[in-house]
Specification:
By secondary structure, the protein is of the alpha/beta class. The protein has one domain: P-loop containing nucleotide triphosphate hydrolases (Rossmann fold), CATH 3.40.50.300. It contains nine helices and twelve strands.
Amino acid sequence: MVTISIENLHVRLGRRQVLRGLSATLRPGALVGIIGPNGAGKSTLVRAMLGLAPLADGTVFVDGEPLPRLQPRDLARRVAYLPQGQTLHWPLTVERLVALGRLPHLGPMSRISEADEAAVQEAMARADVTELAARVATELSGGERARAMLARALAVGAPALVVDEPLASLDPGHQIDVMDLLAREAHDGKLVVAVLHDLTMAARYCDRLLLVNGGELVADGAPRDVLTTERLKAVYGVTSHVDMAGPLPFVIPLERAER
């Protein structure tokens, strides 16, 4: 299992200070949602956690080891990453695309094994793309492509999974399927981190929410403690109806709040 700790994280992109002093420890067995308005720094946060964005200050630890000490292949085996809005440039079949998730486990010039093939088939089944296996990935719809890319991340078989806006382009049924899948992965013992915009999905499925605004961590806790009408008004600038008491919590933005 994998634990990721961030301490006093600062990130600058050009002249802009994107993250300011974020600290958190993310432990296995939980689905952690990262939420916040556009431009808050959510994607930069997950990229910084994985060594893909330069740090102006602070440290990231993976299982207690500073991130720069980890070899890229070792990190790729521990943490599977699905960035947002990936563009496909090669006309691979879906099955071959998903098989790329096994690359961290393969040596130079080695061939995919029976165990690798089994992992690919299982990942396609979990992401509901088995019927697309022979389709050319560049010819898929946006939602089909999103599920195929999720299958590639699952095929890694890593004990941690980081996904950035995994619900983009998906119809409501597949949104539920993906959130069910992420929750199962977490409750089976993985660390799962998801950048989300749908606050109702975040409320229903996440064990913990990190609310980021203006590059700062403004709230960290259980959904019922983070998603309050007062905080949503302050962070998102909207009035809202929040019901966290029922079996299916929901958050409904109503209108722009008066400034």
